[in-house]
Structures are given as C-alpha cells and as structure tokens.
Predict the 3D structure of the following.
Amino acid sequence: MTLAVNEVSVPVDFDNTGEDIIHPPVLMTGEASYKRVTTLVSRIIEAPKAPAIWYPCFFLSAGLAGLLFALIGYEVFTGVGVWGNNSPQGWGFPIINFVFWVGIAHAGTLISAILLLFRQKWRTGINRFAEATTVFAVVCAGIFPGIHVGRPWFAYWLAPYPNIMGDWPNFYSPLLWDALAVGTYTTVSVLFWYLGMIPDLATLRDRATTRFRHTVFGILSMGWRGSARHWKIYDRALLVIAGLATCLVMGVSSTVSTDFAVSQIPGWHETIFPPLFTVGAIFSGFATILFLAYPVRAIFGLKSLITDRHLDNVAKITLFMASIVFYIYLIEFFTAYYSGSTMERYVYLNWMFGPYWWAAWAMLVFNGVIPQVLWFKKARKTWWIAAPVGLFCLAGMWCERFVIIISSITHDFLPSSWHHFVPTWVDYGMLAGSFGLFFTLFLLFCRFVPVVAMYEVKSILPQSHVHLPKAAGEKK
Amino acid sequence: MSSLSDQNLTGKEYWRSLNELADTPEFKEFVRREFPNRASEWMNADRRRFLKIMGASFALAGLAGCRRWPAETLAPYAHRPANRDPGTPVYYATGMDIGGIGQGMLVTSVDGRPIKVDGNPTHPLNKGASDLYGQASVLGVYDPDRSRTVMRKGKAGLEQSSWENFSAAWRQIGGELKNNQGKGLAILTGASSSPSVEAMLKRTANEFPAARFYQYEAISCDNERAGTTIAFGEPLRAVPQLGKARVIVSLDFDFVVGDPLSVKLARDFSAGRQLTNPVTGENATEMNRLYVIESTFTATGSLAENTLHRIPVPAQDVAVAALAIATGLKKHGLDVPELPGLGGAIPEPIRQKVIDAIVADLLAHRGQCVVIAGSQQSPAVHTLAAVINSALGNTGKTVDYYRPPATNDSTDGQSITNLTTALRNKEISTLVMLDVNPVYNAPADLDFASALAGVPQSIQLANYVDETARLCTWHLPAAHYLESWGDIRTFDGTASIVQPMIEPIFGGKSVIETLAMLLAGAAGQAKTKTSGYEIVQQTLGLKAGQWKWKKALFDGYVENSGWSALTPVLASRIAHVLPQVMDARPRAELSVGNLEVVFRPDNKMYDGRYANNGWLQELPDPMTRLTWDNAAVISPKLAKTLGLTFHKTELISITVGGKTLKMPAYIMPGQPEFSISLPLGYGRSEVGSVADGAGFNVYTLRTTAAMNFQAGATVKLTGEHYELANTQDHFAISTLSQETVAARIPDLIHQATFAELQKDPSLGHKKAKAVSLWEMHHYDTGYQWAMAVDLTTCTSCSACVVACQAENNIPIVGKQQVINGREMQWLRIDRYFRGPDAISPEAVHEPILCMQCENAPCEAVCPVGATSHSADGLNMMTYNRCIGTRYCANNCPYKVRRFNFFDYNSGSLKNLYEPNILRSNMNDLVAMQKNPQVSIRMRGIMEKCTYCIQRIDDARVTAERQNRRIRDGEITPACSQACPTQALVFGDMRDPKCRVAQLFKQPRIYGILNDDLNTRPRTRYLPKISNPNPSLVAMENWPLGSQ
C-alpha cells in the first residue's frame, strides 16, 4: 500500500483487542488519517475491476437468485402444491425462510441504532455493511410471505386500504401485525441505511472522475454540501430514525413470534416466544456479520477499518446472545414439563426424539454449545474458528425455525392428522435461491457502495478528538 | 346426439352462435354424420364449443324434422314444463342393483342432470339411507372413461363401429342362430334382481330353445344357497332382522359395509344400540350385544363389545367356532340335529370360555338372538347358522328366509366353469355377455381369456372397454342405471321401477334393451319396437299413466310386490350331510410355510366394478385407511416372523396353488396370525385413467377350488419398496408417539360400558365450566345449528364421506397427493386401535367434521377475515375472500380444513404439476355432475364443512316464505342423510324439541378437546358405549394373545 504517510500510527496488524482503562481503544490500524479512510473505501468503488474472486461469487449468487425467481414463477403459475406443504403442515419452508431472514435482518439495525444510542464508537467500522445485510435480508424475507399464500395475486388484501368490497383486514390476526411490522421495518431500515450513506455518496461525487459517476452520485447524495447546518439536521434525523429503528428491532421479531405464540398449537403457543425470537434474531444477525466480515475485509483490504477489535466485539455479543438463546431453550423444556400438559410435554419430547430429532439437536448444539468456544480469546481472534462458528449459528437458527414450524405442528392434537412433512426440490431450490439473492445484493453493494461509513470512521479518529488521551499503543 | 338433450341451452350466446355455426363445413359434416361415432372428438372440445355444437344440432334436427330422434326422449326447455324452475332440484325415485339385491334410491336432478343419489326414504331397504356404492354411483354416469361407442374387433384390435353396424351384423348371426334353435348361443349374465331381465331371458330362451344360459357373479351368494339347501332342502336367502335381535353372533359376516344389504343390516343393528331416543329424549334400558368371529379385522369386528367379543380366527376355523357353538347348545338340551365331533380341542385362539359365554347368552335370548354367516364362508357355516337359528327358535323372528327366483340352476362358480368347458369344447359359437367382465373376475384356473379367444362371435355389453371387451368381437356400450328404464327387486322381493334421469350420454343400452334388440335382430328386424320403458311396464303388469304406475314411480317401489317370508324347517337328512360338508375341506395346520389366504370383496371397489370411480378410490378404507390401493393384510406377528416392519411397506410375493402375485403388505393388528386377507377388485389398469395403476389383481390367485379362502400359501419378501397412500399413520410411529396416542385416545373418544352408563349417566365427565377472560358471545337468538355424533352407532361405513364429496363438489386429488397429505374430504373417519397388544385390539372410529367451534381458533387468525362466524353458529368460509395463508388450518386443532394446493378441479390428476396456463379446463362431463349450489373452489384457497350451508339456506328461504320456523328434520346435511344408522343428528340446539337438543341434554355428551382448549364445538359426541357379556368383561386382566 503506497499511501502518503503524514502521521505515524499503529501497524496495520496491530492487536487492538486488549483492554486499556486509560486510553480509548484503537479503532483504526495503520495510518489513521482522514485521507486514508477515504482512499481505502473509495478505491473499491473507483477501481475499474473488482477483485478476481468477486466475479465467480457474483455469478454463482446471481444464478441462484435467478433460480429463486424462476421457481417463484413456477409456483405462482402452478400452485403452492409444488412445495412439500400439506395438512397439517400449512407453512413449511417459505415461513421458515421468512423467519430466518427476518432474524438476520436485525443485526444491522441493532448495531447502527442501538449502538449509536449507546455511543459505541466501534460500530462505525461495521455498521454500513451490517445495515446492508439488514436491507438485503429483509428483501429475502419479504419475498416469502407474499408468495407463500395460495393466491399471491391477492396478497395485497392484507393491506388496510379503502376498497369497493367494503372489506377491511382482520386486525385480530397476527399475520396482519406481521405484514405491518415487516413493512414498517423494511421502510425504516432502507431509510436509515440510505440516510447514513448520504455524506459518503457526496464524497464519491466529489471524487468522481467521470461525468457518469458524478451524475449518479450527485443525484444519490441529494445535494449534500457538508455545511454545518446540514450536519446538524442530519444528526438529528439519524438519531430520530435510530430511536424508531431500535423500537422496531424489539417489535418486529416479537410480532413475527406472535404468528406462533398467538396460535394454540402445542410448541407454538408460548409466551416466551417474543423474547426468544428477538434474541434469536439479534443472535443470527451478529452471527452473519461474524461470518461475513472476515471475507469482506480480506477481499477488499479493509483490515485497518474492520479491525480485530470490531470482530472481537461482534463475537462477544454473539456469545452473549447464544447464551440467552440456549437459556430460553432450557426454559422452554422446563415449562413444558412443568405445565403438566401431556400435549406440551409430548411436543418437546417429539422435538428431541421424533422424526425430526436432527433439527432439534442441531439447534441445541449449533446455537447453544458451539458458540461457547467464543469464551476463548484465541477463538475470537482466529478467523478459521470465529467465521465457522458464525456459520454454525446460522445453520442452528435455521434449524430452530424448522423445529418450531415443522416438528410442532406435524404432531398436534389429534393423532389421526399427524403427517410427515417432506420438502420438495422446489423447497430446497427456493432456500438456496434466497441465499443467492442475498449474496447477489451483498456483492453488488460491496462493489458499488461504500462498504464502510467513511465519515463516521473519521469522526472517531484521534484527530477528531484532540482533547482526549491518545489511544493505547498510539505512537507519538 | 339426442342423448345430450338435457344440456342447459339457455342464454343468448347459444342462439347467436347457431347461425355462425350452421354454415361451417365442420358443422355440416357433423349433421350429416348422424351418429357421431368419434364422440371423443367433440368431448375434448372446450365447454363453450361443446354447447354450441349441441345446441345447433338440436335446433337443426328440429327444423329438418329428422325422424331419427325418438319423441319420448327429447325434452328441450323451449316450453318449460309446469312447476319446473330451472336450477331447482327435482327428486326422482329409482333403484339400483348390486349383486342381485336392489336398493331404492332417490336421485337429485338439476336441469336434467342427476347430481346426487341418496336412499329412498320410503323404500323398505334404504329408508332414506344409502351405502357408499349408491352415493358414488352418480359419478359413474359422467365418467369420461366410459365406453362411448360400439366397438368391433378389427385387424388392429378394437375399432370403432356403430349400433347400425352391429345390428346389421347381428341380423345375420342371430338369424342363423334362430334357424338352429339357438344352438351354439350362450348368454352370460351377472346376478340381477330385475324381473324384466328375468322375463327377457325367458323370452330369449323361448326364441332360442337350444341356447344356454349362464350366470356369474364374482361375489356370489353361492355359499348361502348351498348352505340353506343342506339345511332346508332348497336354496333360500336369509335376511337377518337385527332390529329384533338382542344377541348377534356374526360368523365372518362384515354386515355393516360392503354388503348389498348393509344399509338395512346396519340400520337394524344400530336400532338396538341407540341409547337415547332423539325424538323423545328417553334413554334405552337395554342394548344389544354383538359377538364377531372373523378372519380379518373388519368394521363389523370393531363394533364387537370388546376384545373378547371378537375372535380373530383363520377363515377355515370359523366353521369350527360355529360347530362349537352348536355343540354347546346341544349340550344344553337344545333340539340340534346330530353334529359331527369337534375332533379334539378347539384350536386357538377360540377359547372354550368365550364359546360358553356365547352359548349361554344365546340360550338366554331364544327367539331374540341371531347367528349370521358371511357370504365368503363355507356352506357348512351357513348350514350351522341355519341350524342354530332354528334350534333357538329364531326363524321367522330374527331371521327371515325368502326364495328368490332361481336364475341359475347351479352355483355361479359351477356356471362359469361349465361355460368355460363349453367354450373349450367349441360348443359355443356365439357368446353374449351382458354386464359382466369374466376375463377380469372369473376364477384364474379357468383361464377364461384363452377360452374366449376361440369363440367365433363374442359380444359384450359393458360400461367400460374393459378386460373382456378387449378380447371380444363386439363390444356394446352399456347404459348406466341412471340412464335407462328397468326394474329391481330388493331383499324381500319388493319391486322398484328404475327410471332414467338422463338420456344415455354415449347412447348405451341397458341389459333388457340389448336383449330386446338381439331378439328383434334375430327376427330380422333392423330396430326393436320394444323399448326398455315398455318392457318394464309389461313385466310389472303396469301401464304408464295409470295411477298404480304413477304411484310406484313416485314411491319408488311397487306396493305389495314383496314375497312373504318363509319359515322353513330343517331337512331330516341334515345330520347325514353335515359331517360330509364339514369334512369337504379338512382343516389345514397353518404355519408360516402354510398360510391361509382369504379373498374378500373390497370395501370400496366391491368386486372391481367401481375401479374407475375416483370418489371410491380415494375413500379411505374404514379399517386400513388405505386409498388408491389394496394390500395383503397380514398380522403383526406374521410380519415380525417374515421380517417386515411398519417402517417400510414392502412388496411380498404370495404363492398359492402354483400362482404367484406380488403385492404390498399391510400390517393390521387383530388379523389372525397365519391368515392373509386379499381384497378383490383392484389391479384394473386398462379400464380407465382413475383405475390405472391402482392396486393389484387378486383374482389371479382365486380358483374354482377355493373361491373364498385357501390354505397352502407361502409368502416371500421381495425387498422392493412400495408406497401406499394411507390417510392415517402415514409413517412409522415411534414408541414415544405410540404411548402418546394411547394416552390421548381416552380423551378423544370417550368409551364406557352400558352398565357404567346405567350407574352414572355422565360417565364421570364433569361439565367443565368454561372459563374465559372476556365475556363470550351468547348464541341465544335465532337458530343455533349443531350436530350430535353417536360413536356407539357409527359403523365407519363411510357412506357419509362419499355423500359429502358428492354434495359439496369435493375434488379427488390422486394417490400422490394423498401420500403428500393433501386429501380433500371434509369429513373423515378417524380410526384408532386400543388395547393391550396388537394381537387382539379394539378398533374405534370417530367421524371428524368441522366442529363449528363457537370459540373458533381459525377465525381470529385469518388476516383477511375470510372465515367468520354466522349468527346461527356456523363457522363460514368466504372462498372469494380467501388468499390462502393457511393460518386457519394450522390453528385448527381438529385439522378439518382442506386446502387446494393445486387446481384439483381443472385438468387431470396426472398434470397437477403443470402450470395452470398449460392445462385444459375441467372436463365437460365431469362438470355435469357438480352441484350447482356449491361453488367449485379454485386453487390456493381453503375449504371446509359448513353443515351443508346450501341446504340450510334453502330451508330458510322456504320457511321464511311460509312465515314459519324451520322444522326439525327439514335440513339434513348430506352426511346425516346418507347415514344408515342415524349416527349423525343435525338440528337447532336452541329448540328443546329438536332431536339434537335432546341429545345435547344427555350428560354424557362431550366436545372433543373442549376441556383443553375451550373451543366450544357445535359438533359433539356421544361416547362409544359397549355392552359386554358380564362374564367377558375382565379384558384388562385377560391374558390376550395365544402366546
């Protein structure tokens, strides 16, 4: 890296994970200059070509995304029978995927909004791409409820709009709450993400060397000039939306959980579901970042901005959430036992020892046990341990949704209606396709949008806070 | 062409199109071709085009004054008949015949289309109820796979021909035969109760004195005839009067389902078990008792009082059990003729203790008990039943005997053997087969197909181009009973007129019309002048237009046409004959290497004639819950010995008498260890698209020597997996789940004994006070619809399921969709086994339909409000509003909601996975059956039972116009209407005089899961009450099983 060095800083691979009670932590390694921040991030977008690995990844993802849309077309024109859904299992993979992606969609907002409210400075290195995962996961999630209905062309009837039928949706139904919550969340998270990008887009506009880029970024940055007045309004707007988004993080997953908690199927009818779903969502979101951050910073050379300390923090939160999730699992089993209801007890035993035992054990081991290695600093610092743990957590969370949705309802009240659920190739294809869509969007984002919030990183550099003590390890 | 006169041709579109159409060359060609042989050509056309062609041809035919259209058959609605409103259903009485016993039916016809068949309320057999065959028969009229034209054998198999061609050919063949006095002519018919068929056969015999007549029915009453001949010296028909019997012993007689008489038998039987009279509200003080000795677990077996009242024995040992009972009675001094010795100990699992208990019970109820024998049991068993009934003084009291006219001198088995021999000896030059399919169902050792191949002229009249048709020189399409004039006789000889509801859609002819045509042809006439209509009038001695004729048509039966019951006395030679009969088939020592196979009529396919009926194919068998297949039913112990598991359905190869058949094994608890049940009637892959690939043809193992059961079978595993479509227990159940099911059943199906009920009418069931967080809606105005289901009288015969399917336009979904768990029946009958082990468990049945919960879990969760509650307590479904989230179905604890995963109504079952735009629409013929009062549901929406809301609304409109309340019984949902035992009672629970309110008052009534979920179901259940013999109640402690 040949950068003009005007200030000596810590080395790029400086270990900034240590705690120092006097000095604030180093959140950017290498030369911590404004210019370097801008250059590091902008060159990804300004480079004529993406890193070599980007292309195969993109084409694979785009292929899978294409498969998703082809299968949606097939499903819409043929009928939802192309899935494995049946009676009693009315929901199957589409709703598993929906809940799974909604969960992933929580980390970005949580990092940006809650950590913003809590003044956690380290969030600046990862918040932009975490928010991006949010938006893309919401896109993936949002597809499924729409297409899972029997007549998708009437899905808009869920919206309370004045119509000549004189019909209004049923506000008692959790599905309606769900639609409203996810709709709001999508709006707010897109807004939040976009709003947060405006100063960076303006930077790109100003750095643009071609007419085209200048125009595109000019439009996208909405006339941002960086005046003090701009900044003042901007900060307030961001805070307000952060406040809203924080409520939504808590609200959306709770609402999604009411789809189950409000019903009366044993294994669904649980008061603990709102916290479980919220924590699970945050958990899976952080796991996603844990898993994605390593390749992103390696491919795009962002190790100075997404430092080990950032990932260490992400891993710690992942561990914390994993422990809560695990605790709730145990509580669920205890509650089932303690309820004295044979129906409840049977459902949980059937989770563990029934036909879908593998999903329940995967859920417990992947979400509860494996993340415990993150207690060790060595594990948190080693990419080939931490990233796979993130992947396990994701698999575990998908299995959790599988257990809740499939295992419970396939064995409900009347044994005569018990029936296996067997996913079809379309189910698997759509699951793979949703990952394809997510990564397609994510790879496009990495290539064309600033992956790291430049202006926010700059705000936490030492030179922005000259009155504070020098950061630990920072050389004079 | 004329046959489609009942199409609804109203609407401007049709008249406008006529002019356009009349000028096309296509149409001119169509008019020129009077008899459109290639009917398929236009049946494949879309509906609109179809109507255009139909309409135009009628009109032009009228203009041209075409003489070919018979005046009596055309009834266009140009001038609307008086009192006839388009779209308003009209009901006609008619009759149908199964296995030589007629049933009186009531047909609902809308705009000239019969759409539903029910039992005739005034008919002595049906009394308003019907069985699943009657219910499903209407679908047969509109089967697109039906035979459409006359076919003749050409160089490349069957070729399309016409009635004209046949008539011309027959004039020559028949004329020659007539000159020879009919030498070389043989006529084969099935069992028929029709007096007209009998008369026409007599006329044929007069015209062709040398002709031979044969009769063959795969499920015959040969054994009964043989048994009664031994007992009384003449072949008689035994008709049990179960309503008068307090103790009933069934010797392998599954009398509640699959028997032509089952409607009557089930009704009479349940009359003795109706513990609360719904009209008066009075409780019964006594209850009948049923013992069943049977060779497979049947629906009847599940009605036995407890596991000790049902003895699972191999079919060969039923005779031993019967003999043991007779011997026991003789020991007690009853006047029983000399009996052969039992020959040592009674074989397991018949226990002396149980036999003694039965004997004592019979003795205590002389003249009020009855022993009945199943048609597949040996003549010896029928003889013994007759002997026991005579000795107990039951004859004329609990069992009536009738002497049906002998259409067949020998047995059906002998008759078909004689025919085959005659065919092989080239004694027959012309064989006429009327409504029979011997190539499929004749005994395998006769090899009827090869015998038939050598006959110069073989002519078959049949509904389908079936196995026999493919080998004949001529195939003639038969008319359905709903398309033709005819007559039937029921069990006691009461005659009914069969009147057509629609012109023969494919120009088929009935048996009597065909015979008339053959007679006329032989006399050189091109066309017969006697129609079926006239033949029936002649035979019955009635004249159309007369008061008696009108009344007979209206009532559905001819008054006082029945025979009087006979009271035959035992023949004196019986003591000599009986030992010979008993020894005729020595008992085999059964073992794994020497198994017994039992051939049984299938509960749904009967002898195979309903193989192409989708409703019946998809109907779950009452016991096995199988659809779309038959399976070799084997005992769990044998399965274990052989190495079969519940986890995987395997094809087994069964070898008996040198013949081998591969078919899947179904492990059935309660099946005798070394006996295998093989349901007949499947494996008809050539008859139509529905039957294609459904099941295995068991007739290939059935020989003249053993028409009913045979020892000496061996079984080998093939290791090949086969997938069965089962609607319950689709998959292997773990031990954990089994225990859960066992623990849950007592909550789902309340059971008690009659003695317990007498002690405590509430059966310990405390009326739980429903606790709710908010004030519940009070359903205290207007009508409040509800249904009471009596589990004591439900026989699981499944007529209700088919009735519901017919009434509510419920589609079939095909085998693969059933495997996927997407069957659509709104009403299902759950079956659970209960008991300490799998050797002799009890089976309990529970019809589950929508509970119409007052606190419906489904309603709250629908995001678009497509399912809601009516003021009169119905849980309603708004199809148009439904977007198909399936949340309601998920949240329904009873899982009674059904989802249209595909457009099951359009296209065929085989192309469900094709995108809709590539599919053809609903077949026009199939569409004709649909009930116009019920919407056809498209894909992606939910549907469910609404207590037949269309019937409720009909009654409401009528009542409101007459300014009165709806009377009790004015509304009967389809299921309740079909039920022979009145186990389903519907009405207004608010009106204390209503039957359902009387039943709801009973403290024993309960709602499924109501205590758990407070759903407040409107469908409530009366517990299953049994009346075990006090000496056979210790079932919990009784060491069950033989080892």
Observations:
- The two ends of chain A are 22 Å apart (CA to CA).
- DSSP finds 16 helices and no strands in chain A.
